[in-house]
């Protein structure tokens, strides 16, 4: 545990509390610069308690520096200022891809500190495979071509569940690279490189083919699911890609209504004319169109009025923790309100806890996706996952408390 505070008294008090929780290995930093130096040089630091107000580099600057350097330990914030400020900094940290485990109002009350530290203890250390800001690998186009030829890009599928009845609505296809040296890689390590290469459309079509194949199997097994595919900005400017998608779906026998294309708002900023034309054509053919990571992009509300979309995916930055943070809750509520008025389906991403689930259910959100429901999994394991989890999800949807042993997010062993 690294305790960062310019007051020696505060450091001593927090350290004492840590020890009562059984955290024995404690280091201290007297200011922001000291904190960053220690985080860089001491790989054993698993969590940080960070004072926001410090002379020199303050807590906000420390968080920015941590994100820039890819330093991953979870952080508990502490401040004597108003709780709104704490909320804003917490949201900022999450948007930067950091793991924030809550805020402490100074003077620190022992109970509050223990509850935050409990979360630190319960949170696995080290960067997860899907954290934002993970370093990209040094890649060449040859590597990508070889991986495409050797079918090393594998689709994993993450369930989307209806909050109203716990039913399985569909899945999102997420690419993983089965790398010969590095093992299974999450897209954060390579998708940026491929998006900028000539192979992004080939990857999209590979993901489409794999998803269509699994979709046929799920339908045959009595699961009439749809699936969502992530489309990159550059793909949208490629008019041939839309034709290829339409052709492949037609040949597969799966109705286009089962296929939703997820587009990030930043994608809509490039070549707007071509992009909107492509999207309009796909919509006319019956595909679903979803705005991904809603709320994190630029001029998001304006996009809603010009894109022929059918769905909003609210970014996990708004969902995760909205049950504890007033500001996030208000933003989430008004997003759901806009979506309802525009007749759009809403999927909340990053649903990680029972509290997130209950709030979304209360606010009338349609679908939930996140680790609380399930992690992404291989297509073949989806029917068995559903059999094992449908009772849990139905109980949750009807507001009954989940059995203790079934409340944990499913982990199929997949990423
Ligand atoms: P995304 O489209 O926003 O996908 C959701 C990401 O959040 C996934 O990360 C998913 O594993 C992760 N996630 C799901 N539930 C939770 C949760 O409860 N908590 C947290 N913290 N994370 C959760 P993943 O698979 O690493 O994908 C990252 C991004 O890579 C995706 O973000 C998407 O933009 C891009 N991507 C993934 N697959 C493809 C693809 O086939 N083509 C393209 N162009 N982009 C892809
Ligand atoms: Ca997506
Ligand atoms: Ca998203």
Question: Your description of this structure?
Answer:
This protein folds into two domains: 2-122, Rossmann fold; 141-397, TIM Barrel (Alpha-Beta Barrel). The protein is built from 16 helices and 15 strands. It has helices spanning 8-20, 32-41, 59-69, 83-95, 110-122, 141-149, 191-195, 200-220, 233-237, 239-252, 272-284, 300-306, 316-319, 326-341, 354-363, 382-397; strands at 2-4, 27-29, 48-51, 75-79, 100-105, 153-162, 168-179, 183-185, 226-231, 259-264, 288-294, 311-314, 345-348, 367-368, 377-378. The strands form two sheets. Strands 6-7-9-10-11-12-13-14 form an eight-stranded mixed beta barrel, surrounded by four helices. Strands 2-1-3-4-5 form a five-stranded parallel beta sheet, sandwiched between helices. β11 (288-294), α12 and β12 (311-314) form a beta-alpha-beta unit. α2 (32-41) runs parallel beside α3. Mean pLDDT is 86; it is low at 124-133 and 404-415. The structure holds ligand C2E and calcium ion (CA) (2 copies). One calcium ion is lined by residues 292-293, 313, 315, 349.
């Amino acid at each position: 545990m690294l305790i960062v505070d310019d007051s020696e008294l505060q450091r001593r008090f927090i350290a004492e509390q840590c020890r009562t929780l059984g955290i024995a290995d404690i280091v201290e930093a007297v200011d922001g610069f000291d904190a960053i130096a220690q985080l860089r040089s001491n790989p054993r630091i698993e969590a940080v308690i960070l004072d926001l107000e410090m002379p020199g580099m303050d807590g906000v600057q420390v968080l920015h520096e941590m994100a820039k350097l890819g330093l991953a330990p979870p952080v508990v914030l502490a401040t004597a200022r108003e709780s709104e400020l704490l909320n804003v900094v917490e949201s900022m940290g999450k948007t930067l891809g950091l793991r924030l485990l809550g805020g402490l109002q100074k003077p620190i009350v022992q109970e509050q500190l223990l509850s935050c530290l409990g979360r630190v203890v319960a949170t696995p250390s080290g960067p997860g495979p899907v954290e934002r800001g993970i370093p990209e690998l040094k890649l060449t186009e040859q590597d990508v071509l070889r991986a495409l030829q050797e079918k090393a890009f594998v689709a994993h599928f993450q369930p989307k569940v209806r909050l109203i009845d716990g039913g399985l609505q569909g899945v999102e296809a997420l690419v993983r690279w089965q790398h010969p040296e590095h093992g299974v890689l999450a897209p954060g390590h390579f998708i940026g490189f491929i998006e900028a290469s000539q192979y992004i459309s080939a990857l999209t079509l590979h993901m489409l083919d794999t998803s269509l194949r699994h979709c046929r199997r799920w339908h045959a097994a009595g699961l009439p699911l749809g699936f969502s595919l992530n489309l990159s900005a550059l793909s949208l400017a490629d008019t041939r890609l839309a034709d290829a998608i339409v052709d492949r779906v037609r040949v597969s026998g799966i109705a286009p209504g089962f296929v939703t294309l997820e587009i990030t708002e930043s994608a809509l900023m490039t070549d707007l004319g071509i992009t909107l034309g492509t999207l309009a054509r796909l919509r006319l053919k019956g595909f679903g169109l979803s705005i991904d990571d809603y709320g994190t992009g630029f001029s998001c509300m304006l996009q809603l009025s010009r894109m022929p979309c059918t769905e909003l995916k609210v970014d996990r930055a708004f969902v995760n923790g909205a049950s504890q943070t007033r500001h996030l809750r208000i933003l989430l509520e008004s997003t759901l309100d806009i979506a309802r008025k525009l007749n759009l389906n809403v999927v909340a991403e990053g649903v990680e806890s029972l509290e997130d689930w209950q709030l979304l259910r209360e606010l009338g959100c349609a679908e939930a996706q996140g680790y609380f429901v399930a992690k992404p999994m291989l297509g073949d394991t989806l029917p068995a996952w559903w059999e094992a989890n449908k009772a849990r999800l139905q109980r949750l949807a009807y507001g009954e408390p989940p059995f203790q042993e079934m409340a944990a997010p499913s982990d199929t062993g997949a990423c």
